[in-house]
Amino acid sequence: MQDLYREHILDHYENPRHHGVIEHADISHEESNPLCGDRIRIDVKLGSAGDRVYIADAAFTGDGCIISQAATSMLLEDVVGKPVDEIDQIEPQRVLDLVGVPLTAARVKCALLGLKVLKTGIKLWTLRHP
Q1: CA distance to 1, 13, 92, per residue, from 95 (Å)
Q2: Torsion angle of C-alpha atoms 43, 45, 46, 49, degrees rounded to 10
Q3: Which domain holds residue 91?
Q4: Which of 4, 21, 93, 96 sits most deeply, having the most CB atoms within 10 A of its CB?
Q5: Residue 129: inside a domain, yes or no?
């Protein structure tokens, strides 16, 4: 079973979903992990339905290990279409479940970098748009 997850990780690394830049994004945020050198930037285009604001599209760019890049690809595939107010409630375990294989403590930080970038970007946007 772990081989299937490893193939899934490799597929997201070699063929990332939502990879690129969104022109005129509503949210753009970038962070890095100085200990390992991983860097991720996430752009988000928002939409609205009634009084709900949701993630209409998201894209990422960055450099780093297979885990950080694949986990961000999996995360964005999972959050497009979700209301913005639900993003802060995503637990780190959700991302680790998407990755699907046991990770060392250092690799957990790699896997969660995209979630950190997404959540921080949305929090900063929320502060500017109460």
Answers
A1: 18, 15, 5
A2: -150
A3: 2-124
A4: 96
A5: no
